[in-house]
Amino acid sequence: MSKSLRILVPVKRVIDYAIKPRINKAGTGVEKTGVKFSMNPFDDIAVEEAVRLREKHKNLVESVHAVSIGPAKAQDILRTALAKGADTCTLIDAKEAELEPLAVAKVLKRVVEAQNANLVILGKQSIDDDCNNTGQMLAGLLNWPQATNAAKIELDAARGRVQVTREVDGGEEIVSAALPMVVTTDLRLNTPRYATLPNLMKAKKKPMEKLTLADFGDVDTQARLQTLKVEEPATRSAGVKVGSVDELVEKLKAAKAI
Predict the structure, then answer these.
(1) Which residues pair with 204 in a beta bridge?
(2) What is the Cα–Cα distance from 180 to 174, expressed in whole angstroms?
């Protein structure tokens, strides 16, 4: 394999995983005002894996390019991706539009073609909508092989193939496919590095291409789902502690659980 691996890493700006989401007063969605945002954790893992592949196969990886589709503020997470080792990035300003996975996949397909990427690594899902659809849809649109929920990624340079280990109910499953390919990442794949302050300063000098959805005018991004109402889940009653198995059985009988 010659020096020809071009990795694309889509990243999404989401409410920070440590924040407990709250429903807005209108009941139409999650409150976003005054809330901390950060890179989707699964995408952070994807960035780390792309950088590790480049570090391990320096003569094979041409570039690592990050892309985000979201509001203008998403450039913050792109700068973080650059600070962690991505070479270049693209911000596609979607204003405040909430694009569905199919629309995201359609736009990403165009970015893949523009960047001439032959390996896409992205998080298996985002922690805001938990759809777990984008990677699979992108692979379908590109007609590329895919490996989802990756717990380990190995590059077979001699054969131009990628081997992915996936955790399944019975243990592990190992799949292999030739490039080009789409891989989605699981939590066990790696532990992302921190973006240091010096690298964050250097990231400001790295190229960031800025586009808008209008630049993809012929791509259908129309929403197919409508959110009617968002509600908090019903409050559960507190549990109780029992002192013995006999007391537990009595409680279960009283609750008509047995």
Answers:
(1) none
(2) 18
Copy the structure tokens of residue 38. 């950060």
Amino acid 104: pLDDT: 93
* Nearest Cα residue to 125 out of 6, 8, 14, 7: 14
Whether the Cβ atoms of residue 58 and residue 94 lie closer than 8 Å to each other = no
Phi, psi (degrees; rounded to nearest 5) at 204: -65, -20
Which tens digit of pLDDT belongs to each residue from 70-116? 999 999 999 999 999 999 999 999 887 788 999 999 999 999 999 99
Summarised one tens digit per residue, pLDDT across range 223-251 is: 888 888 888 888 888 888 888 999 999 88
Q: Which two tokens stand for residue 34?
A: 């005054």
> Does residue 163 have a pLDDT over 50?
yes
Reported as a single tens digit per residue, the pLDDT across 140-150 is: 999 999 999 99
Give the pLDDT score at 173.
93
Strand runs labelled E in the chain: 5-10, 13-15, 37-39, 61-70, 88-93, 119-123, 146-156, 161-168, 171-178, 181-185, 208-212
The CATH number linked to 205 is 3.40.50.620
Tell me the helix, strand and coil percentages in the chain, rounded to 5. 30, 30, 40
Maximum distance among all alpha carbons in the chain?
Answer: 71
- The secondary element (H helix, E strand) that includes residue 13 is strand 13-15
Determine the structural domain holding residue 69 and report its residue range. Answer: 5-254
Give the Cα separation of 147 and 181 in Å (integer). 8
Average pLDDT, the chain: 90
Q: Considering its fold, how many domains does the chain have in total?
A: 1
**DSSP per residue, 121-164:** EEES--TTT----HHHHHHHHHT--EEEEEEEEEEETTTTEEEE
CB 110 within 8 A of CB 219: yes
